[in-house]
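Suppose a colleague, Dr. K., hands you the sequence of a protein chain of 354 amino acids and asks what its three-dimensional shape might be. Before reaching for any lab equipment, you can write down a predicted structure in token form. Begin with the sequence itself:
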Amino acid sequence: MSNTTEKPRILTGDTPTGSLHLGHYVGSIENRVAMQDEYDCYFILANVHALSTRAHEPAEVSADCISIVKDYIAAGIDPQRSTVFVQSEVPAIAELTWYFAMLLGYGRLMKNPTIKDEIRVKNLGENYSFGFLLYPVGQIADILTFTPQFVPVGEDQVPHIEMTREIARRFNQLYCGVDPQTPDEDYVEAGGVFPIPQAKAGRIARLTGIDGTHKMSKSLGNAIMLSDSPKEVTKKCNKIFTGRGTMDDPPVLEGNTVIEYLRAFHPDQAQVDQMVGSYENSEIGDGVLKKEAGRVINELLEPMRERCAATSDDDVRDILRDGTKRANELAERTLWEAKQAMDYDFFGRGLSID
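The predicted structure, expressed as tokens, is then:
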């Protein structure tokens, strides 16, 4: 109903926590870049969600929004082909969050493994705000407000997409009269406001950090950032834990993070096979693999560094202003259709971005 474009739409984005890293790149960013010609792309900067754990740092979150957009441009996202926008400047998302919250039980929310993992990884214990529990509902609104067919995400977010699908079905059945037996792909044709979106994972679901144990994460200090200098990349690659206790121990192949990086980023996999074979036979050591990993990662990042350096803060603000205007046009239309379905359409409203 809401999707009038000829291209299928996607919606995905990032919570502003500083610059993006290689895990973001292989998990989602490179996928977004490749999809720009075939899809109507919407990329959200979830700055409201960032406050769930950074309520005391709003200025820093705003600065991080600028950094992320520079990383987007550096990685190849084109604001002429994609809509990049700021969550806090799209009021329809907040209103739909409330409506969706009424359709989601607390027990179902807490069964989401993504929530449990975030509480554990961030060592929150019982010390989290109500906003922290509300943000998964807000994520549902982030997605459904833009009525996408697909949501490119990392592996850890797939359970959340399933929860989004549940709420889309529930809304369409409750307020639009869609038969529960309707196939997911036919919900809009059957009169629903919201399509049932599908997760679209990147080519690498989980990239290990340089600690060799945890998923790559800036907060854990084990990430190679897209904005890292050549020297920083080399230094970090030299620190990668390969699984060997000492150099006298036999080479470790299974779970070796350096080999994982070579498989992920090296343009010549035949050469990687040869190097791994030599490594397994102890003909070369960890240092050779680490040096090669640093080289290919720097080769990947160098054009990104150049594009990032050419993008000013003012350029980013212009991109966000234009993108947020486009985002609001679609969001307001979706909200109006949802309120019509709910018999909450008392009167229309206008919205403008200066």
